[in-house]
């Protein structure tokens, strides 16, 4: 883990770079400079990378209000509607909370880190992961993430 970030101007600069790299500056977005739609897969990947960087940044913050702000922005990115081609629904259903846990695990969070992000106990994260793995028919968290990515639950 890098140095602890407490200077709000440094956080703002890094946040601006993250959002710009993800295509959320005024000049970009869902259209390129020539006003043509960008590739949806590329856009999803950029959003996913921005989400990962936001989670990493929030873990380094010591100021509670800045950490909450970063996590709020992260949740806004997660709720962005993504245009997808119609796909066959998975053979199982995950709850919203299970999807949140799985998303954090997919970004590399441990049970303790995921619990901190979701303001629940680490044992609760373990319970959610057991439920997810049972529903998916897999034996470990890596297989759960892999399966979720294969069927399009995670980008």
Automatic annotation (TrEMBL):
Pfam short name (any one): GerE
GO annotation (BP), single: regulation of DNA-templated transcription
MF terms in GO: DNA binding
Keywords: DNA-binding, Transcription, Transcription regulation
Domain HTH luxR-type per the UniProt entry, residue ranges: 87-152
Name of the protein in its database record: Transcriptional regulator, luxR family
Source organism: Frankia torreyi
């Amino acid at each position: 883990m890098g140095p602890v970030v407490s200077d709000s101007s440094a956080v703002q600069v890094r946040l601006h770079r993250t959002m710009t790299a993800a295509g959320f500056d005024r000049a970009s977005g869902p259209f390129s400079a020539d006003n043509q739609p960008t590739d949806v897969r590329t856009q999803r990947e950029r959003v996913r990378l921005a989400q990962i960087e936001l989670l990493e940044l929030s873990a380094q913050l010591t100021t509670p209000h800045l950490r909450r702000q970063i996590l709020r922005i992260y949740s806004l990115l997660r709720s962005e509607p993504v245009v997808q081609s119609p796909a066959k629904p998975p053979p199982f259903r995950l709850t919203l909370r299970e999807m949140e846990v799985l998303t954090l695990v997919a970004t590399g969070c441990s049970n303790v880190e995921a619990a901190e992000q979701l303001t629940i106990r680490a044992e609760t994260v373990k319970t959610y992961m057991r439920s997810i793995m049972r529903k998916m028919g897999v034996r470990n968290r890596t297989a759960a993430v892999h399966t979720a990515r294969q069927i399009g639950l995670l980008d």
